Amino acid sequence: MDVDGDTNDDTSSDNIDVLLFETFRDVAEVGGVHEGPYEDAKKFYKLVDDANQELYHGCKKFSTLSFTIQMYLLKCIHGWSNASFTALLELLKEAMPDLNILVSFNKTKSMIKDLELDYKKIDACPNNCMLFWKDHKKDDSCHHCGASRWIEYPEVDKDLEESKKAHKVLAKVLRHFPLIPRLKRLFMCSKTTDKLRWHAEERSRDGRLRHPVDGQAWKEFDTKHQDFALETRNVRLGLASDGFNPFRTMSLSHSTWHVVLTIYNYPPSLCLKAENCLMSLLIPGPRSPGNAIDVYIQPLIEELKISWDVGVETYDISRNQSFHMRAALLWTVNDFPAYAMLSGGSTKRKFVFPTCNHETSSTYLKHSRKMCYMGHRVFLDSNHVWRSNATYFDGKPEYRSPPSLLDTTRILKDLQDIPDVLGEKKEMKKRFGPWKKKSIF
Q1: Comparing C-alpha atoms, which of 329, 281, 322 is closest to residue 305?
Q2: Residue 72, Cβ neighbours under 10 Å: how many?
Q3: Euclidean distance between CA atoms 395 and 137, whole angstroms
Q4: Which Pfam families does this chain map to (predicted)?
Q5: In which band, very low, low, confident or very high, does the pLDDT at 390 lie, cut at 50, 70 and 90?
Q6: How many CA atoms lie within 13 A of 3 on its CB side?
Q7: Where are the alpha helices (DSSP H) in 171-267?
Q8: What is the rounded CA–CA span in Å between residue 295 and residue 402?
Q9: Are strands 120-124 and 173-176 parallel, antiparallel or unpaired?
Q10: Going by C-beta distance under 8 Å and a sequence separation of 6 or more, which residues neighbour residue 289?
Q11: Cis amide linkage into residue 286, ω under 30° from 0
Q12: For the CA atoms of 418, 424, 427, 433, what is the dihedral angle to 10 degrees?
């Protein structure tokens, strides 16, 4: 969608039509005018009417639906409050009574929700032990630590009558932005669907490294999974996660974590732009989830498994055909603390370097109480003069070979005795090695 408003009228209309078709495919494909699931059918035909209704008599630029989506997008981008959004709609309606628009934020939000552009709220244990979803959706307390799902004020609650305790406040809420519907919508827009094939059809093949598609990891993935590589529209993702303070002040210690997915099908000029990065999860603070981040990533992992193992039927507007879309998570991009949380590896003390892993050369300095990392000479050529120079280094010559790269077999062997348990409250005996947990990946 073009925020600047220079979108071609026909293209914009086509994109809205395809969006409605894909969102309510089970209704639209049924023969007859009003067949299909009743509630879905009502939503579908109401949105179709809004998509066909002119914003005002003779307006060809916007329909009621497209204008509402544009307004809602501007609200999100510029941080308008709900009250200011409602006030603006009321002013527009008062100034131009013939405008076919909604006159409140709540009604606008309801329309956007019918388009399935919203997020899902999943309650979580305040101690990061579990999510209250699936079989545990109706539980009131954590199965691991016994913590209540709700915020409790014992000194206040004991004085209240039971009838006045009906309104409960959730202790912690994860916000999940479904991935699969948004991936499908990328192929509904004529401006984005062609770019998703750039990595196979338009990229330069002069041997220079401009994009991950030119790298060894991408090529090895294509070799191992040739059936995935054959469909150039299949989506390749990267995952990044980090903490931030949503209150924009350094005086308050608060860490809310977000999980963002990057689409690497796009060319270098587009793949890292903010509008092409998909927020998947918003993990509440005030503390970092730490190793329990796996608890919160479960909804995303479930979607990624479906996208990889099964795939989803998707409509491609550029070719006017449906195809079976799959998606693959190629890698994660994080700083060291987040890397440790996601991978389950150690980035502290003795095993600080993932590359060296078991062969990290470290020494504890007793008086300064810090770890010191030596042994850098192992990466020099075997006949380098510094290898035999003990005086200028740690008093020892260095004749060892560089540490070998970790392979899948070694990692699985290291992890085989670690229990596959999610959450913070894990009673695990101390182990020698760089691994603290089995990663959910």
Answers
A1: 329
A2: 19
A3: 61
A4: Transposase_21
A5: confident
A6: 9
A7: 180-186, 198-201, 216-224, 226-230
A8: 36
A9: antiparallel
A10: 128, 257, 283, 295, 296, 341
A11: yes
A12: 40
Sign of CA dihedral 28, 29, 33, 37: negative
Tokens of 92: 């527009």
What pairing do the DSSP bridges indicate for beta strands 312-316 and 131-132? unpaired
- Predicted pLDDT of residue 121: 93
H helix and E strand count, the chain: 15, 11
Q: What is the pLDDT of residue 176?
A: 95
Give the phi and the psi of residue 344 in degrees, each rounded to 5: 85, 0
Nearest-CA neighbor of 39 among 29, 50, 47? 47
Nearest to 179 by CA among 88, 303, 335: 303
Structure tokens at 134: 């699936």
Residue type, 160: L
- In tens, the pLDDT along 237-265 reads 999 999 888 877 666 788 899 999 999 99
pTM of the predicted model as reported, rounded to 2 decimal places:
0.77
The residue among 312, 20, 76 whose CA lies nearest residue 188 is 20
65 within 8 A of 18, measured Cβ to Cβ: no
Q: Which of 59, 138, 127 is nearest to 289 (CA)?
A: 127
Cα–Cα distance for residue pair 426/440, rounded to 1 Å: 15
Q: CA dihedral defined by 170, 174, 175, 176, rounded to 10 degrees?
A: -140
- Residue whose token pair is 């990891």: 217
Assigned token pair, 330: 């190629």
Residues 6+ away with beta carbon under 8 Å from 283: 174, 256, 257, 258, 259, 289, 293, 296
Instruction: List the structure tokens of 347.
Output: 């980035």
Task: Return the number of other C-beta atoms located less than 10 Å from residue 229's C-beta.
Answer: 17
Which helix (H) or strand (E) segment holds residue 289: the answer is: none
Q: Burial of 55 by CB count in 10 Å (0-12 exposed, 13-18 middle, 19+ buried)?
A: buried
Question: 305-314, pLDDT tens digit by residue?
Answer: 999 999 998 8
